[in-house]
Amino acid sequence: MSSPLSSHPDLDLQTEPPKHLDFDETQHPLEVLAHEGDATAQEWLGAHYHDRKDYVHAARWYRRAADQGSAGAKYNLGWLYVHGHGVGQDDTQALTLWQEAAQTGLARAMNGLGFMYEHGRGVPRSDEQALAWYRRAAEAGDAGGQCNLGFFLLDGRGGAVDLAGAAALFSMAAHQGHREACYRYGHMFLTGQGVAADDAQAAAWLRKAAEMDHPAAQRELATLLALGRGGAPDHAQAAGWYQRAAEQGDAQAQFSLGVLYYRGLGKLQDIDKARQWWQRAAAQGEERARNNLALLAKGVRR
């Protein structure tokens, strides 16, 4: 029903995209100020282009602000170098920029350095250094740092496994709206690791992550609803969440959605749609889907 708690999230989830502020596109006060040399306006104008995926112009304005000492612009430009957006992918440039930003106390740059050391990006791989930087970011209140430090405690990297400590860190990050942390905190309530098992709390936090389109959270919330854990079974809601996760490519959700179609639970019974979802799940290696397809091919009905 649930994915292994110790599995690490995708690498992109460990670094935080720039924090952007919106402004009215029909007015151009930032552009005027940016051209006049205002570093804050240059950073915000970079974010304006970044939001629109115009990474070349974003990098140009971030660099101008960074050259004036803007820590936020240095972080943002480093993020572009890590991902190779608008600039050539260059871990060494990103490392330098994040080191400079971290020295000013920018917490998300500290988290970025933890990422670099954890994965050996631009520096020799070092769990000890990664742990130190994640801890500094977490203590400075950075949600990404709190979540990443939580993973280290969860897996016992750099020390003993500390499930309660991991849960506390996921909680802090989740209360800041960090999507992965919301999922992990909910999952811990679901499995009773680091906290007392609590289906109501699990559903609440999984729902927060699910609403932010986290596929595993959508699947696990759907399973709670389908099984009626914490209340009466609600197959209609379960089907909706399985559908959202399945459309994002989650193989387990594709299998479960096929089951609901096959049994007519929360969906009108539709063997063809059940087969289609099982085929998509089977293509990703979902063994239960393969077994069900084999039974369908033999004309077996369960």
From TrEMBL:
Q: Which InterPro entries match?
A: ISR_Activator, Sel1-like, TPR-like_helical_dom_sf
Q: Its domain of life?
A: Bacteria
| Stretch list, region Disordered | 1-22
PANTHER family reported in the protein's UniProt record: DAP3-BINDING CELL DEATH ENHANCER 1
From the Swiss-Prot or TrEMBL record, give the protein name.
Answer: TPR repeat
The organism named in the record is Thiomonas bhubaneswarensis
Print the organism lineage.
Bacteria, Pseudomonadati, Pseudomonadota, Betaproteobacteria, Burkholderiales
